[in-house]
Design goal:
about 220 residues, mainly alpha, single chain
Length: about 220
């Protein structure tokens, strides 16, 4: 075989590999939302997934726009299960174990956020994009005895909002959304802008207090 023939054979094989979907994508497409459940559980643990849950959830919503709500639900439920497991782990291992993993300074920052802002800090962590250390907020919530009931409610609301918005945008914009997924920096920029807006809204709402009406006795 000549060098010229080898070159074209290699080019054809490379193009064929690019055109063939990866085994992971094929598996996710075959099982659909069910495949998102275990990935979402892992995504809410301390095991890094590098934003793969967001990408696959959006990809499935583009592939089947009418089921956007189903994919959002599966990712939300899986994330809630994973968050609960991480919370229980944090309660069991305690603050010192967390400090050994992420350092004393960062642990103290997470603790201050939880103690000073309570539910708002947990909510923000659930909607923030990677590489925000969301799982460590879950673990710290358990280690610092944050109310489990509040934790589950806030986590569910935050994750439901996150994945509902993600799948709605993916279902509406379709291939345009996929093009952004091929360029992670574009996707990350949009995620940061949206998340920053949501975070600002949460803290502004938390600081806002309705004006107190003067009592009748005060005017007498």
């Amino acid at each position: 075989m000549t060098l010229h023939s080898k070159f074209w054979l290699a080019a054809i094989l490379q193009a064929k590999r690019r055109a063939t979907p990866s085994k992971a994508l094929t598996l996710v497409r075959h099982y659909g939302g069910v495949a998102l459940l275990p990935l979402a559980v892992v995504d809410s643990s301390i095991i890094p997934t590098f934003g793969s849950l967001d990408l696959l959830t959006g990809w499935l919503a583009v592939s089947d726009p009418e089921l956007w709500w189903y994919y959002a639900l599966m990712s939300t439920v899986g994330s809630l299960i994973g968050a609960f497991i991480t919370y229980r782990m944090g309660r069991k291992v305690g603050q010192w174990w967390i400090e050994g993993k992420i350092g004393r300074k960062r642990t103290q920052q997470v603790r201050n956020a939880i103690e000073n802002h309570g539910s708002a800090s947990i909510f923000v962590s659930t909607i923030a994009p990677p590489p925000f250390p969301t799982p460590w907020f879950f673990a710290a919530a358990g280690a610092f005895s944050f109310s489990l009931k509040k934790f589950l409610i806030v986590t569910f609301l935050g994750r439901a909002l996150r994945y509902s918005l993600l799948t709605l945008v993916a279902a509406h914009f379709g291939r345009t959304f996929l093009r952004y997924l091929r360029h992670p920096l574009h996707y990350l920029l949009i995620s940061v802008i949206v998340t920053a807006s949501l975070i600002a809204a949460v803290f502004l709402f938390g600081k806002w207090k309705p004006a107190q009406q003067p009592s009748a006795s005060a005017g007498a």
